[in-house]
Amino acid sequence: MKPIAVYPGTFDPITNGHTDLVKRAIKIFDKVLLAVAERPSKKTLFSVEERVKFAESIFANEKQVEVFSFHNLLVNFAKQHSATVILRGLRAVSDFEYEVQLANMNRLLEPNIESVFMSPGEEYSFLSSSIIKDIAIHGGDLKKFVHANVEKALKEKFS
Ligand code: ADP
Predict the structure, then answer these.
(1) Ligand 1 geometric centre to CA of 134 (Å)
(2) For the whole prediction, is pTM greater than 0.90?
(3) Ligand 1 pocket by C-beta < 6 Å: which residues?
(4) pLDDT tens-place string over residues 43-71
(5) Rounded distance, CA 145 to CA 149, Å?
(6) What's CA 8's distance to the chain center, in Å?
């Protein structure tokens, strides 16, 4: 049987890079649980409810993808949902150091859960939620980078 993967992140907001990664991952995993971190200590542009809704609308017809919010320790969330893999994206070398640190810490906390890294299509390798917000602040065109619902919400935030 294929394993279940948790794909955790802030997703503030979800971009086509995140979506691309999930679409690749469902070919390998039984299910991908997209876990939106609440992050009460971090100032996010969108509330956790909004961030969850964006992901739900994008994956509404995708049975292998489930969307959750979480505020507890990631490895505990994974265990509660029978996930044995933590999926993370690697865009460039700059992601590597932090991601390996995180993976090692998660393995110390829970040795039975492995981190797996995937890279998005190269057209998304430069894409981040922060860049999207910067473009949105300056009224740039976001059609190629985010889902229509996200684009609309960003326009409303910065209008
Ligand atoms: P976090 O605050 O946990 O880094 P993000 O929402 O920024 O949350 O990212 C969640 C995961 O998705 C991270 O592993 C990140 O490297 C990955 N990621 C971010 N942008 C992209 C992208 N364009 N393509 C593929 N993976 C990405």
Answers:
(1) 16
(2) yes
(3) 9-11, 15, 17-18, 21, 88-89, 91, 95, 120, 124, 127-129
(4) 999 999 999 999 999 999 999 999 999 99
(5) 12
(6) 5
